[in-house]
Design goal:
This protein is an alpha/beta fold and 160 residues long. It contains 3 helices and 7 strands; from the N terminus they run βααββββαββ.
C-alpha cells in the first residue's frame, strides 16, 4: 500500500489549516444558504441554482475530506532545524543553468505545497529529486522533455 505521509513545511501546514477552517466555517454556511434559497424557489427537478449549489457543496466536502486526510498524515519539517549544508525540504536553493547561465531560486517543499509560480518545487519533481542531498558546487543532471539540463548548485540557505 502507498505511503500516505505528506511532507509539509510549517508554512504549508498553516496554509492548509487556514483553508480547512475557511471551508468549514465560512463556505459551508454560504452553500447551505444557497441551497435553502434554491429550495424555496420550488420545483427542484428544473432548478439550475439548486443543482449548482449541490455540486459546490460536494466539491467543498471533498476538499474538506482531502485536507483532513493530508493534515492527519502530515510530517512537518521544522525549517529552523534544517541542515543548510545539504539540500533538503525546507531549504532555499539557487541553481544555475549551465547552458544559458540563468540563475533561479527555489524553495524545496513537499508535493502538497508545490507551486512553481511562487518558486516552490516539490521534492518529487525532477529538479527536486536531483537536488535532494546535494551540496554547493555540485552539478546535477535533470531529465526534461527537451533533454538533460545541467544545473550547478550556487547556494543553499534555510528558508526562514
Amino acid at each position: 500500500m502507498a505511503d500516505n505521509k505528506k511532507i509539509l513545511t510549517y508554512e504549508g501546514l498553516k496554509a492548509l489549516e487556514e483553508e480547512l477552517h475557511e471551508l468549514k466555517v465560512v463556505r459551508r454556511k454560504e452553500v447551505a444558504g444557497k441551497i435553502k434559497e434554491a429550495r424555496e424557489q420550488g420545483d427542484l427537478s428544473e432548478n439550475a441554482e439548486y443543482d449548482a449549489a449541490k455540486e459546490e457543496q460536494a466539491g467543498i466536502e471533498a476538499r474538506i475530506e482531502e485536507l483532513e486526510s493530508i493534515l492527519k498524515n502530515a510530517e512537518v519539517v521544522v525549517e529552523e532545524e534544517v541542515d543548510a549544508s545539504t539540500i533538503n525540504i525546507g531549504c532555499r536553493v539557487i541553481i544555475k543553468d549551465l547552458e544559458d547561465g540563468d540563475e533561479v531560486e527555489y524553495k524545496l517543499v513537499g508535493s502538497t505545497e508545490a507551486n512553481s509560480l511562487k518558486g516552490k518545487i516539490s521534492n518529487e519533481s525532477p529538479v527536486g529529486k536531483a537536488l535532494i542531498g546535494r551540496k554547493i558546487g555540485e552539478v546535477v543532471d535533470v531529465e526534461s522533455p527537451v533533454g538533460v539540463i545541467k544545473y550547478e548548485i550556487i547556494d543553499i540557505k534555510k528558508s526562514n
